[in-house]
Design goal:
- The chain is of the alpha+beta class.
- The protein has 2 domains: about 50 residues; about 190 residues, Alpha-Beta Complex (YbaK protein).
- It is built from 8 helices and 10 strands.
- The strands form 3 sheets. It has a 5-stranded mixed sheet. Strands 1-8-7 form a 3-stranded antiparallel sheet.
- The longest helix has about 70 residues.
- Keywords: Membrane, Transmembrane, Transmembrane helix.
Length: about 280
């Protein structure tokens, strides 16, 4: 057992002081180097970031160029292979001109079909079968409307034109109030009194479109007229629809995507469901 009276050995002071000074020197030197080299490191990182941004931009430009090259190649191929729009001995000058218009605008999905002269005396279900359409909702009509309160006399301003062509389904009921609301949304700040849509005068519609009553088609018109396509038509499946073909007895079929690409219509809700009784009378009178 150790003697309690033996004094304890003191901790060496000098080595302890040396260690403390060494630590202080280390942190001082480290702080000095950080202060000296940190700006250099930051500038180096910034340089690397700029290089990375340039590389990324170059890659995006290269991808865009490749996509553009593909588009150009596809366009060249389509020009090299003209779209066939067919011909029928019954074609009138209007139908022939319409076929050529579709060919010139590379509308490869367009199909023309001549129907019996009593086509409109038959119910919608019969017309569906004659056209071999997937449903009655794939058969559409086109009307020419005039905004009689429009400040413009022509169709130069697409969002607020005096005349519009509206494409919608026979099996839906056209709603002028919904159409007015859709056009008003394109013209914020213009009062409601500046919109009053009515069916255009037949003679004026003929002058604008080049198509007589019952033969109006919402493309290839004599005067460019903005088109409003019903959102119900845009949602069709299969995605194509039938409409007039330049003559009362000629009909035209086109894919929705291609029609939207070429005509760039305003797609909007312009119809409401037809009453069951009215729909039944239309389908099977």
């Amino acid at each position: 057992m150790k003697d309690a009276n033996v004094p304890r050995r003191p901790i060496p002071f000098l080595p302890f002081l040396f260690v403390c000074r060494l630590c202080c020197c280390y942190y001082t030197v480290r702080s000095f180097f950080f202060a000296l080299f940190l700006p250099l490191m930051e500038s180096r990182v910034a340089l690397l970031c700029r290089r990375y941004d340039r590389i990324e931009a170059a890659l995006q430009e290269l991808a865009a160029t490749a996509a553009g090259g593909g588009t150009v190649a596809a366009t060249a191929a389509s020009v090299a292979r003209p779209v066939a729009v067919g011909h029928d001995a019954r074609d009138t000058p209007e139908v022939t001109a319409l076929r050529h218009w579709c060919r010139d605008h590379q509308m490869a999905t367009v199909r023309f079909k001549w129907v019996p002269s009593d086509y409109y005396t038959h119910p919608l279900a019969w017309r569906r079968d004659v056209l071999r359409a997937p449903s009655m909702y794939h058969i559409c009509k086109t009307i020419v409307l005039e905004n009689t309160h429009c400040a413009h006399e022509d169709c130069q301003v697409r969002e607020n034109a005096r005349f519009y062509m509206v494409v919608f389904q026979y099996a839906e009921r056209f709603d002028a109030e919904r159409l007015t609301a859709a056009v008003r949304r394109l013209n914020p700040g213009i009062g409601k009194k500046q919109f009053n849509f009515r069916v255009a005068d037949p003679q004026r519609a003929l002058e604008l479109t080049g198509f007589s009553h019952g033969a109006v088609v919402a493309l290839g018109t004599r005067t460019p007229i903005p088109v409003i396509l019903s959102d119900k038509v845009a949602q069709l499946a299969p995605a194509y629809f039938w409409m007039g073909g330049g003559h009362v007895d000629c009909k035209l079929r086109v894919d929705v995507d291609e029609y939207v690409r070429v005509m760039e219509p305003l797609v909007a809700p312009v119809t409401v469901p037809m009453d069951p009784e009215a729909l039944e009378a239309l389908c099977d009178p």
